[in-house]
Amino acid sequence: SLRSASMAQHSMARPCSSSRWIRRCTHTHARSTPVVRCRAAAKQVENTHPWSWRGSEMHAERYLHELTPEDVRALDGAVRHARMADAKLVDIDETSCVSLFPLGDELSMKMTRIREDLVNGTGIALVRNIPVDRYSDADAALAAWGLAMSMGGGISAVPQNSKGHLLGHVRDLGTDPNDPATRIYTTSAAQPWHTDSADIVGLLCLQQAVEGGHSGVVSSTAVFDEVRRRDEDAANALLEFYLWDRKGEVPDGKAPFFGVPVFTEINGRMVSMHDRSFIDAAQRRFTTEDGVPRLTDRQIAALDLADAVADELQVKMTLAPGDLQLIHSHCTWHMRTEYVDGERRTSGRRRRHLLRLWLATTGDDAWSLPDAFVERYGDVDVGKVRGGIRCPGATPYAPLTPHG
To answer: Is 277 exposed, middle or buried (0-12, 13-18, 19+ CB in 10 A)?
Structure first.
């Protein structure tokens, strides 16, 4: 089965000149705390942190959290309670979940430990055994949302697209993956190694694909270390700014593209933002005259090497119905293989369907982020609700259907 195969594997800005975007520099924030250094200063980082790992050493017990029968009963009770209270997803936040989505002490503490490991540990967690086979899609959404809010420590949902969706639906909507304006998660095409635009990403599987749709997660810190070991100039190239297409989802007062380094050292951590789909789209949709210079051969080679290293160092998994994958965007990349949909006999759901959450960590332990992330995150200050896509006229809401 797909699950057994997975487990077997575990056992082993505004536009401006190009010189501004691809500057090589050392500078300090105007704010007092974070210190950011570009280029060679990153070589000083010794990545012995728990979020720097290789797939070969990431056995399932390091990130797998299986809900016990008692946990499932507690989750059932919380879903039932929220439904009887007529609670909408947006009504349930970190504070109100105690009354609107009461999980009980044991499961709540388990989710608190998971948050700690996401932010200060490996950056990856897989919660298994959420009973989506007997939940409606609405109840499954309640379960995922309530579990996320129960992590505590400062957590908020942020919008995932220009419509303001706080609950995302990763499903093939028939959009063209070859159109550079397309967000690839709305297709069945492979998604390259990437980070989402939120501190933490959650994906709850409702239904698998008939073929493919396998997931990979990699420590981006480990990727940088390995790239630097093989080719220091390539590592330096990844510290330069690359322009991203916003794919039509443009915040008020912003240009249709923005620049950000793939890697930035800040406060001893190597923070990453990466997505070849958005970088390549900027190359296809804009010209040098628009303010988007062509990638150099050196930059392309560096991106290719980083993606190849990620392939080598990844943890592979196939999300089964009831699996909730949680990952910390600043220290991991993730990807998805191409998939094929079709009829399923195991449930009424016939097509691959994942519910997605983008979460901001607002506690004191949130990672410091570089100023360049402002272009995507809106705010980078620790303690603020940051991240997400915020476009004019969009009011955040949580649709229960993909087309909502």
So the answer is: buried
